[in-house]
């Protein structure tokens, strides 16, 4: 395996990692922003107020995005296995 192939695999790994982690992270970011705006408007400074909605939102997004995430990860794994078979 050449250096260029290793760099390409590392690049693909980073892209897959971003694809898989983006839905729950963006959902957590969005709900955190909404709750922060709500806290700023109402001047409620309770730290635990953000915890439950974020956890529920991230859990819901994980359930909804799981097929996409599994498909992405399986495609990446198949491509790695194909490279291993072709290389050895």
Would you mind describing this structure in some detail?
This protein is mainly alpha-helical. It is elongated, with a radius of gyration of 19 Å. The chain has one domain. The longest helix is centred in the N-terminal third of the chain and has 40 residues. The chain contains 2 helices and no strands. One of its GO terms (cellular component) is bacterial-type flagellum basal body. It is found in: Bacterial flagellum basal body; Cell membrane. This is Flagellar biosynthetic protein FliQ. It is a multi-pass membrane protein. Keywords: Bacterial flagellum, Cell membrane, Cell projection, Cilium, Flagellum, Membrane, Transmembrane, Transmembrane helix.
Write a short abstract of this structure:
It is found in: Bacterial flagellum basal body; Cell membrane. It is a multi-pass membrane protein. This protein is mostly helical.
């Amino acid at each position: 395996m050449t250096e260029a192939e290793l760099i390409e695999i590392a690049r693909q790994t980073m892209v897959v990692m971003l694809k898989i982690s983006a839905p729950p992270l963006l959902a957590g970011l969005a709900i955190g922003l909404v709750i922060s705006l709500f806290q700023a408007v109402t001047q409620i400074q309770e730290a635990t107020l953000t915890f439950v909605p974020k956890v529920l939102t991230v859990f819901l997004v994980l359930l909804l995005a799981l097929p996409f995430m599994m498909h992405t990860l399986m495609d990446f794994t198949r491509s790695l296995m194909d490279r291993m078979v072709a290389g050895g």
